[in-house]
Amino acid sequence: MTTRRRKAGEPTAQKREAHVQEEEGDRPYTRVLLQGALVICSLLVIRTFVDFEEKEYGQLATINEDIPHRFIEVGCSSDYDKEKVMFKGCIPSICGRVIMDHIVTREEAAKLLDVAKKGLSLGGSNGGASILDLHSGALSKGDKFVDIFSLQKTKSINIFTEDDFKLYTRVKDRIQHTITAEFGIPREKLFLTNPTFFSQMTTKPAQTVHDEYWHPHVDKETYGSFHYTSLLYLSEYGTDFKGGRFVFVDKDINKTVDPKRGRLSFFTSGSENLHYVEKLTSGTRYAITVSFTCNPQRAIDDPTLR
Ligand SMILES: *[C@@H]1O[C@H](CO)[C@@H](O)[C@H](O)[C@H]1NC(C)=O
Questions:
Q1: Which residue minimizes the CA distance to atom 13 of ligand 1?
Q2: Compositional bias of type Basic and acidic residues: which residue ranges (predicted)?
Q3: What's the whole-model pTM score?
Q4: Cα–Cα distances in Å, from 252 out to 76, 230, 249, 267?
């Protein structure tokens, strides 16, 4: 294309365009109709794509609700059939999901959040999910796990106090009693199992499979020993982070639980409770997973300050 200087009096490009538009303006109604049709078509196309992307959810527990007790029954899967005799009285006969906002106080949850932050400040995964397990000492660091108690020794620092461990154990015991009461299990038949851990989730892209918390999974399959899974939320959906809701995957419609500080949610660990955590879109999400088994051989002890 060649360029040349515009001679005086010659119309500029803008003026020429305006002229062309005036000529087309001879058929204004046709033009308006065509443009209108185009806009409507575009909107329809966009809507179709948005509908396709947008999932519909049912809500089990929203952030604005205060839930003293909510039990949602779901039919038990056949996952427990083989163990019914062996762990009689503990294996669930009724399966379901429970949400209780007052088992743990918001103050206790805030203190546990401090414990989580203290511990995790010594490590942290390169990807979006980190854990701290006070029982085994496992702490995510980079692409692997280190032992937080050895790390403390090497650095000759004491990050946890006796009170931190007392609080943790007290809250854990209360959760255990709540689950046995809810599912009608004799206290001596349900045991804490591993992994039981603090979790921290961020928007960082995953580096290893451990970071990919958003895949639907069944706890009983993933962890083997689990019969009842509980989650205690330490931070809040919508203010501390966005995304990151807990989602039960059901045939008809998936159901969400909004994390809320001090909210306890627990459920039977079989495939009747397939679930995942939504990818975070901002902020940091903290929770504790407290896991229980009917198998005494898979029981773990309370954590001790080392
Ligand atoms: C529920 O979630 C799963 C996993 O993300 C997804 O495949 C499925 O389409 C969702 N169901 C509905 C009804 O949106």
A1: 253
A2: 13-23
A3: 0.82
A4: 17, 24, 9, 19
Which tokens is 214 given?
């958003």
| Cβ–Cβ < 8 Å for 96, 73 | yes
Determine whether 6 is an active site residue: no
* Pocket perturbation via mutation, ligand 1, pick of 218, 245, 254 by most ligand atoms within 8 A of CB: 254
Tokens of 270: 């079989």
* pLDDT for position 13: 47
Domains recognised in the chain with CATH numbers: 12-298 (2.60.120.620)
Query: CA 142 from chain center: how many Å?
Result: 21
Query: 282-295, pLDDT tens digit by residue?
Result: 999 999 999 999 99
SS3 255: strand
Residue 4 pLDDT > 50, yes or no? no
Residue 305: per-residue pLDDT: 86
Residue with more model confidence, 41 or 182: 182
The model's pLDDT over 246-268, given as tens digits with 9 standing for 90+, comes to 999 999 999 999 999 999 999 99
Q: Is the preceding omega at residue 28 within 30 degrees of 0, hence cis?
A: no
Catalytic residue among 97, 263, 285, 298: 285
3-state secondary structure at position 228: strand
Give the whole-angstrom CA distance, residue 174 versus residue 110: 17
Instruction: Tell which wins on pLDDT, 236 or 14.
Output: 236
Supply φ then ψ for residue 174, to 5 degrees.
-65, -40
E-strand stretches of 148-263: 191-201, 228-233, 241-243, 246-248, 254-257
For 173, phi then psi, to 5°, come to -60, -40
